[in-house]
């Protein structure tokens, strides 16, 4: 009897946490759909970075040279654009005082982390859906791409999950700091370097399609996935301290 009651209590707690998670997630989604501030700023920034890429690579005649380092260019674009979005992920909460209300509510801090990380992930994916085709159009439209190019979807997905998870924790830590834009970049780049290295490696292999290198592709994707599991679990556990600090 006691075991049955315990299971019922655990089920009710899980349902309550899911309701809290859904409410927080939908709050962020509805707010962004209404204002479109975060998505618009990220897309515009990404277009500016693509323009700079175009100026820097204007004198490159051989498109194959671009393919050889296209993975690095693509991930630099994603990381810099993500930093802009992560800096704004708590802007509405801090400006309207909503964050204090969330802290006073009986909401599990881990649920707050999961909801915010999910909303950041959705926004990053939405921007990538717009920006990545433009990257191909501007720089790779005339290049001979390997048949394995669609495989870049895997490192893009794994890398974006890691960026959203780790970035949510670090952006929370820098909410009330002076110069938080610079501080977030200083914290994020070293922490995310192993993920970035693995994803660039896997993306480059997929672009090049050289036989005998696909072991590197799968090992790099595995390294990125392991990074996601370890770092997101750590962020989950540390989020209460970061949010209440």
TrEMBL record:
Protein name: Heme exporter protein B
Any one of the GO CC terms: plasma membrane
Family: Belongs to the CcmB/CycW/HelB family.
Superkingdom in the source lineage: Bacteria
Secretion signal span: none
InterPro entries for this protein: Cyt_c_biogenesis_CcmB
Alphabetical UniProt keywords: Cytochrome c-type biogenesis, Membrane, Transmembrane, Transmembrane helix, Transport
Compartment(s) where it occurs, according to its Swiss-Prot or TrEMBL record: Membrane
TM helices/strands, residue ranges: 39-60, 66-86, 121-140, 152-170, 182-210, 216-239
Organism: Collinsella tanakaei YIT 12063
Main subcellular localisation: membrane
GO molecular function (one): heme transmembrane transporter activity
One record GO biological process: cytochrome complex assembly
Membrane topology according to the record: Multi-pass membrane protein
């Amino acid at each position: 009897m006691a075991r049955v009651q315990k299971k019922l209590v655990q089920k009710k707690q899980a349902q309550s946490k899911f309701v809290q998670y859904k409410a927080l997630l939908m709050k962020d989604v509805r707010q962004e759909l209404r204002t479109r501030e975060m998505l618009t700023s990220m897309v515009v920034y990404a277009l500016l970075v693509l323009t700079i890429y175009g100026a820097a690579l204007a004198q490159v005649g051989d498109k194959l040279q671009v393919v050889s380092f296209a993975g690095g260019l693509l991930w630099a674009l994603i990381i810099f654009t993500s930093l802009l979005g992560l800096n704004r992920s708590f802007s509405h909460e801090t400006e309207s005082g909503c964050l204090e209300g969330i802290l006073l509510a009986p909401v599990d801090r881990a649920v707050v982390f999961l909801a915010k990380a999910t909303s950041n992930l959705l926004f990053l994916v939405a921007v990538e859906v717009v920006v990545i085709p433009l990257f191909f159009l501007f720089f790779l439209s005339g290049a001979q791409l390997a048949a394995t190019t669609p495989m870049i979807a895997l490192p893009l997905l794994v890398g974006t999950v890691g960026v959203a998870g780790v970035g949510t924790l670090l952006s929370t830590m820098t909410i009330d700091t002076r110069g938080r834009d610079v501080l977030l970049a200083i914290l994020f780049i070293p922490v995310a370097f192993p993920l970035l290295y693995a994803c660039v490696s896997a993306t480059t292999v997929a672009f090049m399609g050289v036989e005998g290198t696909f072991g590197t592709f799968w090992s790099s994707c595995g390294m990125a996935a392991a990074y996601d599991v370890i770092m997101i679990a750590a962020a989950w556990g540390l989020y209460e301290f970061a949010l209440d600090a």
